[in-house]
Model the fold of this input.
Amino acid sequence: MDLTNKKKIVNDPVHGFINIQHPLVFDLIEHPFFQRLRNIRQLGLTYLVYPGANHTRFQHALGAVHLMTSAITVLRSKGHHITDQEAEAATVAILLHDIGHGPFSHSLEYSIAHNVNHETISRSFMAELNKQMDGKLTLAISVFEDTYHKRFLHQLVSSQLDMDRLDYLRRDSFFSGVTEGTIGSERIIKMLDTKNDELVVEAKGIYSIEKFLIARRLMYWQVYLHKTVVVADQMLIRLMQRARELAQSNHPLFGTPSLLYFLSQNVTEADFFAKEGESATPEALLHFANIDDNDIMVAVKQWVTNSDPVLSALAKMLINRRLLKIEYRNAAFDATRIEHIKSEVAKHNPSIAKHVDYFVYSDSVSNNAYCSSDESIKILYNNGELVEITEASDMLNTQVLSKEVKKYFFCYPKELRVN
Done:
């Protein structure tokens, strides 16, 4: 008989004391699949710009659990029936919503498991955990995948006003020091309600929602898509791309066994799920559960001295924070100029001349703070009327917030002076 006290209190710098109320949540937190999140940075390489941004996916998941607990308490206080089983399921769903993130989170979203996103891997982890825990996660998976009949529970996990966003905006603002991202998450949760099985916000909370949307827009361009963060991410992506090419051509390459497993072959989405009739944990999932930021950084430090000049140069630049120069603009860069700079870089660096695309490139990033085509944020008035935030707000330029903002970037070596 397990006599472990599974009702714990965690001291969090953002929310204060977090209560772990469900024994199942405690067991999941203790599982090695979840513990790996302690070694995965929430914001990837953002710490190269904001030194304090070293917080982890583990911290974020616990913060989201705290907000989910608060939201369920608020909704129950307003007369909505949520059973203990449903509360546990929603809490488990938000705890595990990001468990499929790999090293450096979004920075390497498609670079470890090639072209497989973290949502897919999260579902794989949940399926395996459910098997190991004798089906105790079945209801949580139903909530996570939006197949449970109470849809507002899924919206608490994944929507334009979910507990995920309410935690990461406040947490990322706190650790980066960018105060523009600070939001009143507690007040927003106090204003939550449901109508027609849909998560809504009481009218008196409209100003908190306006601030939330503005904060999200500011955080994207000031933190998540800061130009130096973008170039660092791009360099890491190309470094992993080069490592994959070398590994698959049998070039000597240092790496932990699990990292080399992914670099040496093209793992597909199907590899993360057990085939029909198989009971063993998929090999791809076991290897993925065994890698984190440490595997990448140890490898990158070793690649500095690799005989491949491209891998060595990129590794050295990242380790020493000697990043490429990046230009941002609203229109695409001139192709003639890009080709000219490529030829100049190749001419002055013969060892990488055949692979100049790793050091000179252009692409784009985009974001919109509010997507009106998705499930919209609804405001509930005292007369029972529901109005979308874009219509209810008399302050926000919702057309601007809903519009996709696209910026083009151009990266090249700093030592090359160009006009």
Remarks:
- The radius of gyration is 23 Å.
- Strands lie at 8-12, 16-20, 192-195, 198-202, 325-329, 361-367, 378-380, 386-388, 405-412.
- Residues 227-248 form the longest helix (22 residues).
- The longest strand covers residues 405-412.
